[in-house]
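In keeping with the milestone schedule agreed at the kick-off meeting, the structural modelling team has produced records for the first pair of proteins. Each record is given below as a sequence line and a structure-token line. The laboratory manager (R.T.) confirmed that both were archived under the project's standard naming scheme.
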Amino acid sequence: MNRATILMYHIVDTPQAASETKYCCPAAVFGQHMRYLAESGRAVGLPQLLDALDGRGNCPADAVAVSFDDGFAVTHEQALPILQRYAIPATMFLVSNRVAGHNDWMTPRGFPRRELMNREQMLEMGRAGVTLGSHTRNHARLPELDAAQLANEIAGSKAELEALLGQEVAYFAYPFGQYTSAGRDMAEQAGYRAACSTRSGFNNAGVDRFQLRRIEVFGSDSLWRFRQKLAYGRNESGLLFPLQYYSGRLRARLGL
């Protein structure tokens, strides 16, 4: 399997301000995406995708796993019914020190204040088949931290969530997509099975399990843009993108 795709969503809702338009996927649009995945038979959970990459299980050759960052309460309210309707497994990466709090790492940059899920909402998602993962304790910028701070954010979040939820937390996502080799190594040492980056592209058996690639889904991604992202494994999309993509590959092969 060399075309395993992990999708990254943030907020399933209509934007409250222009600043968050990119990160908000309206429920109607999200529903179109999930219906397409259900009809294509490609949707799998992140654990199943990793089992297949490790040679311990089977899934479609072009499998797609859905993930969400941050744990917004509105995503629980609007995304969960759609996931259940189409029987789509997913993974939610949670900020452990902000349970029932708000997105205070975003508001100083002009983003609207939004509530994050509480414990019961997290457990409800877990019971519905959503894998619960870690997104650090405080949504920290990991490259700015020393070794002790990295351990607090990465290992500390795992311990905090496991105590809160009463279950293993085996998956991690780097906040802002930012990390160094020290952050990557800390995620492995903390006992996670895998960690997701924000670098675009497909995943295959040879990919570093602590630098998994993901495709970011934007609020403006209509169904044809969504399908194009799945086809090319890139965050970019557009009418001219296929031409640009193949011309770029041709130039690379020719050494231009």
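The second protein of the pair:
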Amino acid sequence: MTPAPSRIRLLLVDDHPLVREGMTAVIGRQPDMSVVGEAATGPDALAAFRRLRPDVTLMDLRLPGLSGAEVTATICREFPGSRVLVLTTYSGDEQIYQAMRAGALGYLLKDMYLDELLAAIRAVHAGQRHVPAVVAGRLAERFAGTELTNRERDVLHLMAEGRDNGGIARTLGLTRGTVKGYVHNILEKLGAADRTQALTLAIRRGIVHLDSSSPHLP
């Protein structure tokens, strides 16, 4: 008698209980998949992965404690060959880039159809990349521009907090002239006409978030 094929063991990482409950119900109906664990925070996700060693991890990006990209990078560093599929509402090119750079094999938006989710899980389990056309297009937009330096990102985050050039200069220990130069570079790289447009573009692309601060700031 031929033994039944083993199921794809999944770890669900999302800070919304209803999302995890819905995903568990959907996956539980698939004959080739099973949910072996759940996590609601970044640290809990790492602990669960280390304990369970799932075949595929469905990873949200915005998590308490550690971001999904940080968790993915740690998992892929500690366990080379791990298969992570990002499942998120965030569609900015910077967020996509950071997740793929961290080692994710796929990136899905939560408004996708169920069939696409199941196909993505199976593809990632097989070691294949799964990046829908709309996600690939946004990722291509990022590489079409010039990347901001860490210091330019620091300045941009302080701009998002409402600081003027003088306030930014005092915070970073720079001169006003140096800050003015950074602001000019930021506008040019983002293709913005002024500071307001630069911030609008940066938020849309996921470069900055209004509820977060730059990890590079002293």
